[in-house]
Write a structure and sequence with these properties.
Blueprint lengths: L1 H6 L9 H19 L3 H7 L2 H22 L9 H22 L4 H8 L2 H13 L5 H18 L11 H20 L5 H25 L16 H27 L2 H7 L2 H14 L5 H20 L6
Helix pairs in contact: 2-11, 2-13, 3-11, 4-10, 4-11, 5-9, 5-10, 6-8, 6-9, 6-13, 7-9, 7-12, 8-14, 9-11, 10-11, 13-14
Length: 310
């Protein structure tokens, strides 16, 4: 039982559930921000749908193996809620990784992390969550930082950035579903559901692009042989997805969705820093300003989290 409890992820714990959730999210964003910088390399060697299918199969295999070792049941308490949550999060990842094939990681992350706005709107409209001035301010600051990094006013802005924004809306729906409908599910159960949805969705589209509408781009490349670079980077993505998704799931099970979502803006910071460290991509003063606003947004929530309606 002790090993199973450890597997559920209670490696960070404070008296304040929001700080606990923030710790989970920051770790997850650091891991994901590192690995997502290599998707552009994956795009040169294979197709999006083959990548997703292989990554999902690897992740699901690890989850099933761990569940067997720890004798842990993966049967959902609420099958419909877990299925809905799995489909929403998987769909958001299709949008996100699809955009990473042809847009800079910092720009894609900025588009995706319009999601806290959607989280707040959904939480208020559908679940009656009370949103106070400080939380509204934090969301606006975080979104402003994201917008500054996205820079839609620049001449090089492309409409394709709306793809990760769509992913942000889907991700927000999945996040709210996690907190309100799946809070009592095992983290491993939710991970298994996510990988199953990812495998079914990507496998189905892979069949279509392979036998009906093959192309040369990342989104339309058919299934085919893979080289060592594609394989090891896909393994890296499977490991980081297993770690990151697990930590994020724990965060949304620990604290209210509209609090947790703001801390996910930190992905923009980690993605930009790792992009600089790995590829020597310069960080512009505008992006530094965006990062500062995102950090301030997270600090507001952390410092004011003792209030009932922040």
């Amino acid at each position: 039982m002790q090993i199973a409890d450890l597997a559920e992820g209670y490696l960070i714990k404070t008296a304040n559930p929001i700080l606990t959730a923030a710790g989970y999210v920051l770790l997850a964003m650091a891991v994901i921000g590192f690995s997502d910088n290599f998707v552009v390399v994956i795009a040169r060697h294979g197709g999006l749908w083959q990548f997703h299918a292989m990554r999902a199969a690897m992740g699901l295999g690890v989850v099933l193996a761990l569940a067997a070792v720890w004798r842990m049941s993966l049967t959902p308490l609420n099958m419909r809620a877990v299925a809905l949550r799995s489909m929403l999060v998987a769909a958001s990842m299709f949008c996100y990784f699809g955009a990473l094939g042809f847009l800079p990681v910092s720009q894609v992350a900025a588009g995706l992390f319009t999601s806290p706005i959607f989280v707040v709107l959904i939480s208020v409209m559908l679940f009656g969550v009370r949103i106070g001035l400080w939380r509204i301010s934090a969301v606006i600051l975080g979104f402003g930082g994201s917008l500054i990094m996205l820079a839609p006013w620049q001449s090089g802005f492309e409409l394709t950035v709306l793809l990760p924004v769509l992913g942000g809306a889907l991700y927000a729906m999945g996040a709210v579903t996690t907190h309100h409908l799946c809070a009592n599910e095992r983290t491993m159960t939710l991970q298994a559901g996510f990988f199953i949805a990812l495998l079914i969705g990507s496998g189905s589209v892979a069949l279509i692009v392979t036998f009906i509408a093959p192309g040369d781009g990342f989104l339309s490349r058919p299934w085919g042989p893979v080289n060592a670079t594609f394989l090891w980077l896909t393994v890296l993505q499977a490991v980081t997805a297993l770690t990151g998704v697990g930590l994020i799931t724990l965060a949304y099970q620990t604290a209210e969705s509209s609090y947790v979502a703001v801390f996910e803006y930190s992905l923009l910071i980690f993605a930009g820093l790792f992009s600089y460290l790995i590829w020597q991509d310069p960080i512009e003063p505008r992006e530094v300003l965006g990062m500062v606003l995102i950090v301030v947004a997270g600090a507001i929530l952390a410092l004011r989290s003792g209030d009932v309606t922040v």
